[in-house]
Deaminase
Amino acid sequence: MSTALWIKNVLLEKGLSTCTNNSLETNTALYHLKIEEGKITEKKPATETIETGVKTMDAKGLLGLPSFKEMHNHLDKTYLSLDWKACQPVSSLKQRLSLEAIELEELSETTEQRATAMIQLLQSKGATHIRTHVNIDPYVGLKNLEGIRSVLEAHSDQLSYDIVAFPQHGLLNGEVPGLMKKAMRSGATMVGGLDPAGIDRNIEKSLDTMMNIATEFDADIDIHLHDSGQVGYYTTEKLIELTKQAQWQNRVAVSHAFNLGESPIAQQEKIAKELAEVGMAVMSTVPITKTMPPVALLDQQGVNVHFGCDGFYDSWSPYGSGDLLEKASLYSEVFRKSDERGLANSLKFITNGITPLSDKGDVLWPIVGDDADFVFVEASCSAEAVARTPERKAVVFRGKLVYGEL
């Protein structure tokens, strides 16, 4: 018996047509896809036969979408798998951080259990990649990192991942730089940072410390930047400047970046071009209580924008479903992406930029050579999937069924 696999009768997008009212319509057809060693090696119309003696799965007309990438998460903080617990009210960020420091040490005994529950939930919603930030601080040390690394390694045949060493209580907080370096030697794959102005109170020193750790360990960067207004804008400009100096182009991401959406349009356009020039990505959780970065403008300028669900059901917030498709749908609704292509293109923010079709209707995905990563839903096209957020019937990672059934 061959180790190859055929996924039969997959509904895939094949082009666009123009209706009588000049609106666009997505055209689809059924295909068979051959998978070998985690890659698509053959794609043929479902009207053609496939060889015998090869394992098969039958999608039965379900729409195939590129699998989702959860690009901003906190696996170590969730209460999932524990009893219900609402958030304790606080009067300041300082108080919230103090409470979290106490709580995370207590929760460290259940890190693997809770992280597993979060991973399983994200998988059930279509994610096959998780970028998780893990607290590295004087209170919990590397305890959370050890647990998260263990869980992710145990799931390495079901998803890919990044582990960001995250200085939640400040990068310049006493022994934290040393702990961050220890974390990088102990399984973290990326360097994080947090509010150089609001938390560290020293923009230049905080950014320099973060970049120095990244270059020492040849690691990419993903910094939390909540600092708003001109302070946040200045910080972003300094990070761009530092990225050029360190020659760290295409290796830095800014999470949240509220300041970009709060700036005047002229400043938004200026910094969008600068971000694109250094290949700096922007990660957004599509907040409804904060100003979003100007996603459409950033995208138009060539900035890679990704969505994530953030930490959810934890000491910071009792809300969240882990559904990235909901994030794409919410973004589309808020910014009135109600036409066929506007909805379909919103999918790119949860798939690492992948969409089935170009705006001209050319097939971009799936093609021979692509990773065999899929989400299967009952929908006629990706535009409908974004608008209606149907149930995920099955999820495939590198040719392996990791959720649902086919």
Remarks:
- The longest strand covers residues 5-18.
